[in-house]
ABC transporter ATP-binding protein (Massilia consociata), 354 residues
Amino acid sequence: MSNVHLRKLCITRGGNQVIRDLDLQVEPGEFLVLLGPSGCGKSTLLHSIAGLIDLSDGSIEIGGRDMSDADPSERGIGMVFQSYALYPTMTVEKNMSFGLRIAGAPKAEIARRVQRAAEMLQLESLLDRKPAQLSGGQRQRVAIGRALVREAGVYLFDEPLSNLDAKLRAELRRELKLLHGALGSTMIYVTHDQAEAMTLATRIVVMQGGRIQQIGTPSEVYERPANRFVAGFLGSPSMNFVEGQLEGTLEVQRRFSAGALAVTLPSDCVAAMGAVTLAVRPEDIHLQPDGPLKASVTLVEPMGNHQVVWLDCGGHVLSSIVHDPRPLAMGQAVRFAIDVARVSLFDPASGRRL
């Protein structure tokens, strides 16, 4: 396994600066996920680590060596792309071993590596088949196997599951996590799917506009988002945001007020009085008969093991995750409570966490 260190990385494409002064340290054996919306620069960043995109400025170290100008073949990386990119006329075994054969590796070594990767990815019975005889999930396993046989110090994954259906994505997501545990290799994974990021990552890097917005464990990024963008990007449904005023003094608990929606915040809240944005996740809004807040139901989305209930509280639209299976009617009056220990406050101007 190898570490990856990016220093002051800048990448310009078509006259536009895609990555700006980016610093990132990836620890050996880490499963780091680059997460963000389309166009945020995450794939460009991954491709620069692989050596497929030239840098405008900055440096890339892999395993303690400066690889900023090295060819992709010299970087000690294995890469899995979004498309399978398999040779249609070659068998699974030939596809997996292609790079090693081109490099002139001994036949016995090639056979050992292919067999090891095939066992890990449950491909032993498919080695003599061609890509046309495989399902989408099997083809992606072959693409992953082709990277694994390199026995690289770092593995790069560029949205490898995006072409698969939901069931296959969930299966391969689990297999990738088990594979990382078995190999202990350094893995850098690009996705816009927050479920993949939350389940796979040891740390998540949330990106927007070519910049890192937050780095942390999945629980850190989810529970304490650094700014409003991160808060709104993670979670389904998204976090609820309410613009209002923070009232109170140093001696009295602060109270958030936004018309019909008003709550007393925990005693450890030290944010300054004035305009703030209160954010609360849907799972922290609880429908209960004796709740202090009133609302009417505007929409109910059945999700199997829970319901997403949309509420109107004095003009504020809120989503709540409800595990009670009892049906709710459109327009029904309900009462609810907010778990104030789990709310976040953001500066309405800068979006930063208070």
Q: What stands out?
A: The chain has eight helices and 20 strands. The radius of gyration is 24 Å. The chain has a mean pLDDT of 93.
